[in-house]
Amino acid sequence: LTGRDLGREIFANIGEVARFVLPGDATSGPIPNVGAVFTVKDPAKSEALWNQLLSIPAMVGADSAKTPQEITIAGRTGREYQLPDVPPLVIVRAGEGAILAGTKGAVTAAAEHSAITEDEAFRGLLGRITPNSSKAVLVHVGRALAIAHGMAKGNEAQELGKLKTLLSELTISVVTDEQPTQFSVHVDATGLPNVPSIVKAVAGHKASPHPGGKDRVETAAIQEK
Questions:
Q1: N or C, which terminus of the chain has less Cβ within 10 Å?
Q2: Cα–Cα distance, 27 to 89 (Å, whole number)
Q3: Which helix H or strand E contains 5, and what residues bound it?
Q4: To the nearest whole number, what is the mean pLDDT of the chain?
Q5: Are 164 and 146 in contact (CB under 8 A)?
Q6: What is the pLDDT of residues 118-133, one digit of tens each?
């Protein structure tokens, strides 16, 4: 295993990479599941290279590193690696020209063909991606905040809980399109929050409980506007 092998893999063998983050599950708890789908020219070569690379910590006796274990996910055989200070990492070959890698929950979702194209929340943003698109980042803000909320504590958890409610339907995409004579960046958003309702909620929270009080009058004026 040399630097040349890694260079060939990154610059010559890998065609596309789709990285994704999913909420935690019964196995991972509040920690999110992280995964990636690689399309490659030679899946057997990629599988052999990454299996060899990820076996090194166990070979050199690193703390908490264990010998790779055979694993089957959605009828596909792969390997699970326990590396120091990180959740177990799974690598599975998925049919022709694809490698799945990541936490067990993420790889299971990808192996069972859970596709973003079937997610109604992202349907309005996927149309922005064209054959000329080079890079794309799509984020469901409400779900991302839900993941962060599950890991937070105290006042931070309370604030994230409020944001999660207000931005529950917000999705954002940033896409770069690259052509021989043109480079463009597109930013889109769907499910924008109802700003007037947020203002009213904040204003109502600050209102005085006494009828006719100054705060109550100012709140009424804000709501009227």
A1: C
A2: 13
A3: helix 3-8
A4: 81
A5: yes
A6: 888 888 888 888 888 9
